[in-house]
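INFO batch 0412 | record 1 of 1 | parsing
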Amino acid sequence: MDKGEPRPQQMAVDFGTSNTIVAFWDAEKKDVVLHSVKDVTRPFFYRHNGRRYEIPCIPSMISYRDRNISFIGSQVLDRMLENSRGTFRWMKAYIQEGRRIKYELADGSRVDFFDAGRDFLEKVLLFAAASGHVDVRSAEIAFTVPVEAFENYTDWLSETCRSLGVQRYRFIDESTACIFGYDTHLQPRDMFMIFDFGGGTLDISIVRIEEQVDRGRGCRVLGKAGCRVGGRSIDGWLYADLLQRAGIQAVDARPASALFIQQVEILKERLSDHESREYDIVHQPSGLRLSGVYHRGDLEDLLEEKGLYRNVRETMERAEKRAYERGATREHIKDVLLVGGTSLIPSVRRMVSSVYRNVRSYRPFDAVARGACRYLTSDIETLYDHIQHDYAIKSYDTKSKTHRFISLVPRGTRYPTAPDFKKLSLRPTREGQRFFGVDIYELAEKGTSGNGRGEIIFDLNGSVVFDNGAANALTGTEFWMNENNPTFIEADPVAKRGDKRFSLSFRVGANKNLRVTVRDLLTRRLVFDDYPVVKLR
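INFO prediction complete | emitting tokens
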């Protein structure tokens, strides 16, 4: 491969229940850049050690005017459509639950949460492409998934990627991504607690970094516990409290509820940075108004009354108990990593810090997206001592008129490999053939078969053809790794039809380069000696 060839662009999507964050890898700065889109992303602000941070988030919601016209993210909030017919939110949770109920839109078409999630991600990718950061068809895109996500969710995500034309997609579990995003120095067997307190749930995972991973899953869950309470629950409690203070019945406040809830959420967030905040929320059409001063202590009393702290303590204890059953104790936990907007509440952070040492809380919104983006770069490669994806040679079978693959380097292969890790031989099918080569593909899905030993020949058009039974057909997503330099072997003198002309021996080097040694069987000449073809992952 030409050393001057630019590396593929890299992007990560943290599709969350409440908010979605998109990140790009800036190769020049060697850092992650978060994606901000006017009228689509909504800024989240927080302070840490006296510094103010702004994180662009896309609210995970889509609203359909009809099947062909829709709005996402802040477009929905700005139009106050979050409670309207044709609006879908909490999509990730419903997809994981397998909820296939169809809802009728204004134009009579029917959409379920699986359709809505796909359409939402399609717009997210379209905005990313329009920004000029990536070419979606050639970019490497990492999607985060829950640690114990069921196959139906990852299958849906795979189908969505293929339908949207994403050729190089990866899955990484959210806990591992969070660890990468917190810039933690990792060693196999390190143990972490991920305290994920988001909009819908509190999820606590105690995980251990593993040397062996599958489909991007780099950690083993030792203990996990959850509670169906989150930021939206707190918004509801705070909203009810403000209505009570104003003497307004909930049924009477319905016309203003969308505006009130939106502003209540902002009030809650500001109380994380201030001891008290004035509020004055007016719904002009109805004349309803909420106004007054709310103190952080008032919110903490409300959370105590509603049992939030008790639920948090019990959830931590259940996660610890399950980890203890597998030989892990609190003393083994290297760091506790806080993520999710609700983890920013000062009393929640104090509570966690009173129980655990080494609590980190400076990337509550973007740790998962940042970590997923870093996962695609060489920064993370040193964590693994094996190849993480399947690589194969692709050909066209003129008899069956289908493409076929032969396995070259299977996922899970430890490197560096032996010098003769894979062997192949080449022969021409036309008289006077001069140029030969192999097309090397990275496969997004496992499915390559064959042991990698055999012969490949070339048809009259110069395309590679396997001999009988060398490999089986494969359906899946693939990416051509050496498209710019597929034909790199020259026969001198030219080859005669039918003669076995070249022997190829492949190995994987210490830096994950796929290297080939090529010998001319006619002249006994060494054509290439340990020639680097492509970089593997």
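INFO post-check: The first strand starts at residue 10 and ends at 15.
INFO record closed
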